[in-house]
Amino acid sequence: MHVAMDKLFGGREGLVGLAILAAVIFIVMPLTFDIFRLNLVGKYLTYAFVAIGLVLCWGYGGILSLGQGIFFGLGGYCMAMFLKLEASDPESTKIQSTPGIPDFMDWNQLTALPWFWEPFHSLSFSLLAVLAVPCLFAFIISVAMFKRRVGGVYFAIITQAIALILTILIVGQQGYIGGINGITDLRTLKGWDIRTDEAKYVLYFLNGALLIGAILVGRLIITSKLGRLLLAMRDREDRVRFSGYDVSSFKIFVFCVGAMMSAIGGAMFTLQVGFMSPSFIGIVPSIEMVIFTAVGGRMSLIGAVYGALIVNFAKTYFSESFPALWLFLMGGLFIAVVMLFPNGLAGIYSSHIKPKFAAWRARRGAGGGPPLPEVAPPPEPAAPKPAERPAAAAVPRSLAAGIQSEPSR
Amino acid sequence: MDGYSASELANIFAMQAFAGVSLFSVFVLMALGLAIIFGQMGVINMAHGEFLTIGAYSTVMMSILAEKYMPSFLPYYFIFAIVVAFIVAFGIGYLVEFLMIRHLYRRPLDTLLATWGLSLIMQQIFRSAFGAREVSATLPEWLMGSWQPIEGVDIPINGLFVLALTAFLSLAVFIFLFRSRWGLKVRATTQNRLMAGAVGISTPMVDRITFALGCGIAGVAGAAFTTIASTGPTSGSLYIVDTFLVVVFGGAGSLLGTFASAFSIAQAQSVMEFFMSGSMAKVLTLLTVIIILMIRPEGLFSVKVRK
Amino acid sequence: MSSNTDFVLSIEDLTVSFDGFKAVDSLNLYVDKNEIRVVIGPNGAGKTTVLDLICGKTRATSGSIRFKGLELTRMSEHQIVRSGVGRKFQNPSIYENLTVFENLEVSYPKGRTVFGALAFKRTAEVIAKVEEIAREIMLEEFLGTEAGLLSHGQKQWLEIGMLLIQDPELLMLDEPVAGMSARERELTGQLLKRICNNRSVLVIEHDMEFVKNIAHKVTVLHQGKILKEGLMEVVQSDPKVIEVYLGH
Q1: B95-137 pLDDT, tens per residue?
Q2: Strands (E), chain C
Q3: Which ipTM value was assigned to this complex?
Q4: Under an 8 A CB cutoff, do B123 and A168 touch?
Q5: What is the CATH number of domain C4-246?
Q6: Model pTM greater than 0.95?
Q7: Chain B touching partners, 3 or more CB pairs below 8 A
Q8: Which of B302, B304, B306, B307 to mutate to test the interface with C (most CBs of C within 10 A)?
């Protein structure tokens, strides 16, 4: 049991990192910001779900998807459709020519609810759809691509094109799905008003808890044999294939997991922000989601969360104060993070801050302070005694070295 | 289709097909550059659309200059502008390769992200320099108007001109790649970089010229673009995804494939636009392309090699 | 001659052509149980292509490859591996960023499906097996070493070990001693002789001393066809073989 826990939390260091993140989300942020700003932080944190999914797909699996907005949007739309139906009861829409259907349908001369809206009257169906629809979509895309060994830049371009297609499709279907405005004016969830401050607090904490859960799921995957296989595949796909593994099934799995995480983020976005629109699906938002991950560190689940927070804070600040500067900064960020800091903040932390911190602790330990356990990581023995090598060691130290190499094809 | 006689329908069809030809020209001009850069070097240049924009703005600038200082030159400036557009885009492409791309070879996904960043920066530069509003070049008289081969069919002259330019440039690229010494070096480098280096080809220089050339062609595409639409900071980026699909659909590395796919995509889109809304036509076209790519990932034309 | 089913591997009438060029041309090849067979031949003879065809990397144009009665030409790569065919590549193909232990563990034939891999645990059984193989390939002292830091010869052994841990019935090695020192060649020869118990080994090799040392039988390929097959001494003195090797 201890070993399993240790594995999940990534040992001592992983546990500390997770605890700090939890403290930031659950204590620091709520104490620092009023509910308006905290709601904004909650919105940023919904992007962190996408960023975590990208760490799994891109960082570990080597699959760069430029279409994560698709899944974020699908998840968000599934949630929004439920909320919209609840907000469109015949009582509150009685001034419409057809009461009981969403307002934008009425404006577009629709007189009946389209068939695909019907099941979204049910909350349990909608919640299931939040996960199932994006997962199915991701499954179809990834089976078609990975079974035929399409990867790398081709995959990136095709996912980007799909994001474009979906955006144009939604924008073009004003009457059925709300068009460019999206699905707006969402009010209650099973009678509970999501627009009140109290609801916003509850949703913020729920969002934070789900995010920690997503990180733990991510940890579970990357510390398992599956995580090692993903890394192995990224570097030597043929060797993995000729060791008896069906390479595509692993890629399909990790892509679907990434899609479902994005979808949870999208659903939480809808709940906290109160609307969903195609502007969160297209090419630009999708590629921005990649930069969150890149800034945080493409191999670091926790880093991805900070990446999403920092980039979005900067975006809000700059686009409010210096809108012209923001695009320069964003563009510069893409270039810098690729050319100078390929491992993002997590990389900077482990190569610059951590050694200094360890040295400082070592000095303090030597200076007669209270003896600290495990001052520095023990040197790797030449031959490990496997019995003493807990499963936690499954995340190889050597991962750091693996990050530098980008799979090429 | 009620209300149209058969001959009217045929005329509309012919004109719609020609509208497709204009789109085809822009696709080909943009895709030619991309196909060279992607097909020969494996580099995904997300900022390729911005090189088109550079060419377009250069042309607009030339038009303004001509109008202001040498009105008598106005009928001829456009030819000159094409050359300028090429040189400016070529020069900037050369610089970009030197500063950025060459550090990222063998990291195709990273190149993609970095060039996306570059495209954001370039768009903002355009916005700061030329304003967010779209601007147009003053077209010389001889480019305006239309040609009526038969009663009821109007073929715009500018469309014909762009088509001719496309044909000329495609031929030039073909000759460069397959009939010149430089082209031989480029192809040798693509096929075996180590060996090419060993026989004395300066592969970094080949890369730089190849990249710059692709950008220069995008610049010419920009000049051509001004004859059929007005130019804004994001004009080029609107075409980037379509163009990538054109290149991938045609089969990377195959110029013939690029033509075939540009033609079929442009025609499909333009003909369907007559029957449904523009956005649905685009959705259907792109979706068809994606589905075909899922069934045949190597594209329309591909080379079978022994690995 | 016994019937085909007695052979571990029987290749019949195998042809593959790339745009009309026949890299392998109606080839027939039979490998016995517990046999070490070496395939030699000049460059471009189609040796590596034959291995590619057996393990499914390249698809045959026509012909059949039967392994223990299974038709391999219609199976996918991972199914072929799971049926008991292991293949070492020409250049050492290992996971340089993982340790030797992890390299072997990843190749351990359990947890091969997505959910199997998620649930896979490093049990005492796994550890024992990894250590046993590491001893076999003379790397027991390097279990904690990152594989990228091994010498070229050790990398070759590690890749052989990664195949051994799956206990394949047919082991295919593409130039296992290329780039090795004399001492390493000798050790590799001994290793191959040790591991061919209960399995057949198909080796491609250029080093004639090494071939003489290990081979039970030698097949000479030339332009996708078999030029000569038999004992090393016989093959070596065959005028056609000498012509092919020295004549051009």
Answers
A1: 999 999 999 888 888 999 999 999 999 999 999 999 888 888 8
A2: 9-18, 21-31, 36-40, 62-67, 70-71, 85-88, 170-174, 200-204, 217-222, 225-230
A3: 0.88
A4: no
A5: 3.40.50.300
A6: no
A7: A, C
A8: B306
